[in-house]
Design brief:
InterPro entries: NT_sf (IPR043519), Polymerase_NTP_transf_dom (IPR002934). Pfam families: NTP_transf_2. This is Polymerase nucleotidyl transferase domain-containing protein. It comes from Thiohalocapsa halophila. The protein is an alpha+beta fold. It is built from four helices and four strands. It has helices at about 5-20, 55-70, 85-95, 100, and strands at about 25-30, 40-45, 75-80, 95. The longest helix is centred in the middle third of the chain and has 16 residues, at about 55-70. It is globular and about 35 Å long.
Length: about 100
């Protein structure tokens, strides 16, 4: 996994501050492959919250910019009450759950 270990706990904390204490976050995409270089940071978030997703996404993006600067970050957010799309399933199955790594 190509993510600075020192940033994982702050990312998990920022996600939970934005999307609730039960929110979970996975890193997926090229950053999970140690053999690759570069690439944006792809985060998949599951939340029990259903309201104000756009506002919460904006607040989270500002928090993540404070952590990562100008690094490109893609956020995929799914309220648990909604059925998962194939992308959500791929992110969960192939991604790294950051809340587990941050412990």
């Amino acid at each position: 996994m190509r993510l600075d270990p020192a940033t994982i706990a702050p990312v998990v904390q920022a996600v939970r501050e934005s999307f609730g204490d039960t929110a979970q976050v996975w890193l997926f995409g090229s950053r999970t492959d140690d053999g690759k270089r570069g690439g944006d940071i792809d985060l998949y978030i599951e939340t029990d919250l259903e309201r104000d997703i756009v506002m919460r996404r904006s607040a989270l993006r500002r928090r993540l910019e404070a952590i990562y600067g100008d690094q490109k970050i893609d956020l995929v957010i799914r309220p648990r009450s909604r059925a998962p799309h194939p992308l959500h399933e791929i992110a969960r199955e192939q991604g790294v759950r950051l809340s587990e790594v941050a412990r």
